[in-house]
Specification:
The complex is a heterodimer of chains A (222) and B (175). In chain A, 36% of the residues lie in helices and 11% in strands. Chain A is elongated and about 110 Å long. In chain B, strands 4-3-2-5-6 form a five-stranded mixed β-sheet, covered by helices on one side. The radius of gyration of chain B is 33 Å and the shape is elongated. The chains are: A alpha/beta (222), B alpha/beta (175).
Chain lengths: 222, 175
């Protein structure tokens, strides 16, 4: 009388298949994620508890303020950047040719005084942003951001004001001084742009605070 | 796949030492671990790096000011070296600036106690009016921090203004 012997099986599993899956997923994620474009101007943004995601740079008019207080303008490819430049050319009579205007509008970073635009456009190579001297925003007498913003609001004339306001992003460095920010604000305000957005790093709402409770109950903060 | 075919050579040569055949099986478990670790890393970092946008609204300048109750007003002045000065009510000759910090225990508690105080006086905490007057030496970060605390504590009314000459005097009495 023999009992049926249960054959002992090995507990080793072949990991090859699993390894394949893991690396397949890994390569998929690496390739599928959109690479963050290298930042033309290095800026360390302050953090806030805001939960609204910032718009994509391609559809926004981004004003950047770096730690030294230099101010740059970046016109995204989906904005009316050519119209903005054309308007600036006529309002400030820069005397740019059509080709130069196209070149200026396609510049990744605009960061030179109006008087130097023609010179920079004439150069063969792109000048790195840190070598540019920035758009002057020193005081109300010499605030060229005001001219730029006038052209922005002229280019968007007739469209929904809210749409424009949603597209204006301000990205400032933590170390930038407040008066520099204020001069940008003045430039926007002078052109009837009262609302804009500040780019910050996300941060969780502190436990137990009013904001935390609002977020929990599903109320949306402004 | 991971193991390679190893043929047993049956031919035995006398006098020739037989080589020790080792298994070519590799334990892939650590490699799988590593793979999944990297996946988790990439998944987490890509979703969290998104920058956030904070909306900011400035009022149109108007000539008819809206009246505020004096005990509801709190004025804060972010100044150099991450210092935050404040005073309550109107600026008077005998006003002394108090200092606080940007920590959770500093400015946030100040706002919360002021809210309570306003609630007990006026019956409605929303009447608290905060006036922000950043000094010229304060940084952009200080300003954003103040706005952030306003958002956290749910203060409804705040005004961003320029620092006045009297306040500058108070900040720096020697000058």
């Amino acid at each position: 009388m023999g009992r049926a012997k249960i054959p002992r099986k090995s507990t080793n599993i072949d990991m090859t298949a699993m390894c394949d899956v893991a690396f397949l997923l890994l390569s998929f994620f690496i390739l599928a994620t959109k690479q963050k474009p290298p930042e033309a101007v290095a800026v360390q943004t302050p953090s806030s508890t805001q939960s609204t995601a910032a718009k994509d740079p391609s559809e926004s008019i981004l004003i950047t303020l770096n730690a030294e207080g230099k101010c740059y303008l970046m016109l995204g490819e989906k904005t009316k950047r050519l119209e903005i430049v054309q308007d600036l050319n006529t309002t400030r009579s820069l005397g740019l040719s059509e080709a130069e205007m196209v070149k200026l509008s396609k510049m990744q970073v605009i960061g030179m005084p109006l008087g130097m635009i023609k010179g920079v456009l004439g150069l063969n190579q792109a000048v790195p942003a840190e070598k540019l001297e920035g758009i002057p925003i020193k005081d109300s007498a010499n605030n060229e951001m005001m001219d730029w913003m006038r052209s922005v609001s002229n280019a968007y004339k007739g469209t929904n004001q809210r749409e424009l306001e949603d597209n204006i992003l301000l990205k400032g460095d933590m170390e930038a001084l407040y008066p520099q920010f204020k001069n940008i604000k003045v430039a926007l305000k002078k052109n009837d742009i009262y609302k804009f957005r500040i780019v910050t790093n996300g941060e969780a709402a502190p436990l137990g605070s009013e904001l935390y409770k609002n977020n929990k109950s599903g109320k949306k903060a402004e | 796949m991971a193991e390679m075919e190893t043929k047993h050579t049956a031919t035995k040569n006398k006098g020739c030492k037989r080589m020790n055949k080792k298994s070519t099986k590799v334990d892939l478990t650590p490699m799988v671990d590593l793979g999944f670790l990297l996946i988790t890393f990439f998944v987490f970092t890509t979703t969290m790096a998104q920058p956030k946008a904070m909306g900011i609204i400035y009022p149109k300048d108007s000539n008819n000011p809206s009246p505020l109750c004096e005990s509801c007003v709190l004025t804060v002045i972010p100044a150099a070296d991450n210092k935050l000065y404040y005073y309550e009510g109107m600026l008077a000759v005998n006003t002394v600036l108090k200092t606080t910090s940007f920590d959770a225990t500093g400015f946030r508690d100040l706002l919360l106690t002021k809210k309570e105080a306003v609630k007990s006086i006026r019956g409605n905490a929303e009447e608290l009016s905060l006036i922000i007057r950043p000094a010229d030496e304060s940084t952009y970060k200080n300003f954003v921090d103040v706005l952030d605390e306003i958002n956290i504590t749910g203060v409804k009314r705040y005004f961003i203004d320029d620092i006045t000459a009297e306040e500058k005097q108070l900040l720096d009495p020697d000058n």
